[in-house]
Write a structure and sequence with these properties.
It is built from two helices and 32 strands. A four-stranded antiparallel β-sheet has the order 1-32-31-30, with no helix packed on it. A four-stranded antiparallel β-sheet has the order 2-3-4-5, with no helix packed on it. The protein is globular. The N and C termini lie far apart (73 Å).
């Protein structure tokens, strides 16, 4: 039969001489068509050098010790916190006693103590072996964030009950309650000189406080400030400026002494419904006249403080959730909703590395004290460690 007729009838015949090699195939090993997504996930590389899997729920917080380069603390939605060590898979200490999600963690500046904040309204303090020291009580709502005083054992915490609290950790005494906000206190910190406190809230205001008297020195609100709740805050190393990000997609820089807005920037893009995309993270550069911020508009903006204009706008495939500087260097890490971590050279605006491994959104990043490791926590219930010594 002519070959043309075979093709028209949909039949093709082979001779035994056409067979090159026979292979036995087990049907159970063949992938189903429905498994294509799983095949793609398997092919994704994992660039991490250490994975901590002690948690059973989403992770929200990570902190690296300022004095021990391998000591890490993590906390999450499984109501647990852990202390563990990079490269020591057999060492972990559970921070027991929390009754709700561990939302925030911070080491004291001398590295001697760790504080963990929980949605049950309690702050617990531990030594670096995971031994419980004391509980700090008072807030009537969940703990949103905690910060240590830069020069001593004082803790500042923001709460869901519209207040911020300050305790002396060595004796457990409450030193001041900062009342005035009308909604959740979502962000805050001591200034690096320890002389002033700044707090931001869902009520769209920034308050500047005297930590000794508890007096509100300035309330920043209304035009030209944010129109929706604050999400994040950072204070410059010279204690003169605060930068805040908001759900309204804007970033404002405030002079702490005067309480005046000195610079502003809005998100580059809006959502599909026309509403602004939230700013999720802000930071001042430790050693350059820059500020950086990222958000759900899928951008990292490197802001020139001297010219009050963008130096670079760095695009991501999905939203930016968190930031971490590599010490005082020019390198910065961004954590993203797609589970990837991007490393940026902020002098050139170039993405020089992308770390893969997480399956879901990155929630927080921390850098080890020796600048050799970047630790990330994710909604995928894992903490991962990546090597960054080549960038520092």
């Amino acid at each position: 039969m002519p070959a043309q007729d075979d093709e028209e009838q949909g039949q093709v015949f082979f001779d035994e001489s056409d067979i090159i090699h026979e292979v036995d195939v087990d049907e159970e090993d063949l992938p189903d068509a429905d498994d294509e997504d799983d095949i793609e996930n398997i092919e994704d590389p994992d660039d991490s050098i250490h994975i901590f899997t002690g948690h059973t729920g989403e992770l929200y917080a990570v902190a690296c010790s300022p004095t021990d380069p391998v000591l890490v603390a993590t906390g999450g939605g499984d109501d647990k916190g852990f202390l563990w060590k990079i490269g020591h898979a057999d060492w972990a200490s559970e921070l027991q006693g929390h009754t709700d999600s561990v939302s925030t963690l911070a080491f004291s500046s001398d590295g001697q103590l760790l504080a963990s904040g929980c949605f049950d309204g309690l702050v617990k303090v531990w030594d670096t072996f995971g031994n419980f020291k004391r509980t700090l009580e008072g807030p009537g709502g969940g703990i949103e964030w905690i910060r240590w005083h830069p020069k001593g054992h004082l803790i500042l915490a923001g709460s869901g009950d519209c207040t911020a609290w300050m305790w002396n950790v060595d004796n457990g005494n409450c030193l001041n309650v900062f009342s005035g906000h009308d909604a959740i206190v979502t962000c805050g910190d001591f200034t690096p000189d320890g002389k002033t406190i700044c707090t931001g809230s869902e009520d769209a205001t920034l308050r500047i406080w005297n930590p000794r008297s508890g007096e509100s020195i300035h309330v920043v609100r209304g035009h030209p400030y944010h129109t929706e709740g604050l999400t994040c805050l950072s204070i410059s190393s010279d204690s003169t400026l605060a930068i805040t990000g908001s759900k309204d997609g804007s970033v404002h820089i405030v002079n702490i002494t005067t309480g005046k807005v000195v610079s502003s920037c809005s998100s580059q893009t809006g959502s599909t419904d026309g509403n602004p995309e939230s700013i999720e993270c802000v930071l001042f550069a430790p050693n350059f006249p820059w500020a950086v911020f990222g958000g759900m508009d899928q951008n990292l903006t490197i802001w020139d403080l001297q010219n009050s204009s963008p130096r670079f706008i760095c695009n991501h495939e999905e939203g930016v959730t968190c930031l971490a500087w590599f010490g005082a260097s020019k390198f910065l890490a961004t954590g993203c909703c797609d589970g990837r971590i991007c490393i940026w050279n902020c002098l050139s605006g170039e993405c020089i590395e992308t770390f893969k491994g997480h399956e879901h959104a990155i929630q927080s990043l921390a850098v080890s004290s020796n600048l050799e490791f970047l630790v990330s926590v994710s909604m995928d219930s894992t903490a991962r460690v990546f090597e960054i010594r080549d960038f520092c």
